[in-house]
Every structure is written in C-alpha cells, then in structure tokens.
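User: Hi! I have a protein structure encoded as tokens and I'd like to know what sequence might fold into it. I'm fairly new to this, so please keep things simple.
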C-alpha cells in the first residue's frame, strides 16, 4: 500500500520565515539537532515539543484516482530559543512580530498554519566560566492540517464459493 504525505507542518519553512522576520543571516535559525555557532552572534533554535490532534481524522475516497485522503487538524507546539547577545530582546521582538498581520499572512500562505498562542517569554541566561551566555525561550502553538493519501485500489475480480448442502 503506497502512502503519500501531501501536507504536514513545514519546520524548514518556519525556520526560514523566522529568519526573514528577524532579518538574521543564513544559518542563524537552526533545527535543534544542529550545533549553533560559537561566539556572540545570535542563534535561534527551533524544535517541536508536542503535536496533538484536534477532533477526529477526516476520510475521503476518490474513486477516479483510487485513493483515500486522510486529513487531521493538529495543534503543534514549537520551542523557539535564542542564544547570544541580546537574546531576550530578540525573542521579545519576535513574539511581537509573530502577531503582525504581515507575518500572519506569511504563515497562512507559506505554512498553511496559523498562530494560536504564545507562552510567556523566559530568560534562561546562565553563567559559563567567567562570563554569561544569554538565552531566552518561548513556546508558540500553531494550528495546521496534516494530509496523507493512501492507494486504495478497487477489487477487479473476486472468487465466490457457494455451498448447496445447507
């Protein structure tokens, strides 16, 4: 049975959108599994915390294409964490920019997602050696749909066995 993912939350697209909104250089917004740059330049790490279904999955059958399409509405919570100089100020700016109508439109058009909630901004600055490492973090929850198509071929022939001794 062949399965094709038609739509899911685009983390790469979200990282690109955040980089653009914050006017950061390429590579400054990264997934959680990549090491950040060393030094004082700001670095933003983006990772999925949770994803939960809203309601039940919708099913639709397309007989012409012989596929079943499954659509699931989801709420996905993303952790956004900044490191480097002015990390708290950078995240404070981002929480405001995420609510701008232009950013909301970019989320709808590029990610097929909408911002639902923002958590309080947390200052996570720590002492490292003789200095400090500035850190700040908040969570953003987005609504979106995941769509998957599954081949569901028709039954062309079927064997029928009858018994007459009933």
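Assistant: Happy to help. Inverse folding works backwards from shape to sequence: for each of the 166 positions I chose a residue that suits the local structure. Here it is:
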């Amino acid at each position: 049975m062949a399965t094709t993912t038609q739509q899911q939350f685009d983390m790469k697209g979200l990282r690109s959108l955040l980089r653009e909104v914050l006017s950061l250089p390429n590579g400054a917004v990264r997934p959680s599994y990549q090491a950040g740059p060393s030094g004082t330049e700001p670095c933003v790490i983006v990772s999925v915390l949770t994803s939960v279904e809203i309601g039940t999955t919708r099913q639709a059958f397309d007989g012409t294409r012989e596929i079943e399409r499954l659509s699931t509405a989801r709420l996905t919570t993303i952790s956004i964490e900044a490191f480097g100089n002015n990390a708290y100020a950078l995240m404070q700016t981002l929480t405001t920019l995420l609510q701008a109508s232009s950013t909301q439109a970019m989320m709808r058009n590029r990610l097929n997602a909408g911002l639902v909630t923002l958590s309080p901004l947390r200052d996570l600055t720590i002492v490292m050696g003789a200095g400090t490492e500035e850190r700040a973090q908040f969570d953003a929850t987005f609504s979106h749909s995941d769509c998957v198509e599954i081949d569901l071929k028709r039954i062309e022939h079927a064997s029928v066995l009858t018994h007459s001794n009933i």
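A useful reference point when you look it over: The helical segments are 11-22, 87-97, 101-111. Feel free to ask if any position seems puzzling.
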